[in-house]
Design a protein that fits this description.
Number of helices: 1
Helix content: 55-70%
Structural class: mainly alpha
Distance between the termini: 99 Å
Oligomer: single chain
Order of helices and strands: HEE
Amino acid sequence: MIDDRYLEHFAIMVEELRGIKTELKTLNNRADGLSNRVEKLEEQQAKTNALLSQHTRDLMKIIEMLEADVPHFDKVVNMEIIKGTSKKQTVILRRG
């Protein structure tokens, strides 16, 4: 026959294991949430990098056009933004 002390220790161990299991479930849920957040941030970073690359190419095109069309482009030319939209990224410039 099993001694009552062994049963008591066994019951305590089972209860501790249940607590550990609950804590592991909580940690897994938190880890999944963090993983989802990281994935979203990586997607946003990729979109941002793509936009920055496009803007860099657009700026280089503008510089090439200005070098070809504006006399003395190497000197300071003040320009003023008349109209710009954030979604289409279209900007109309006028010499100041």
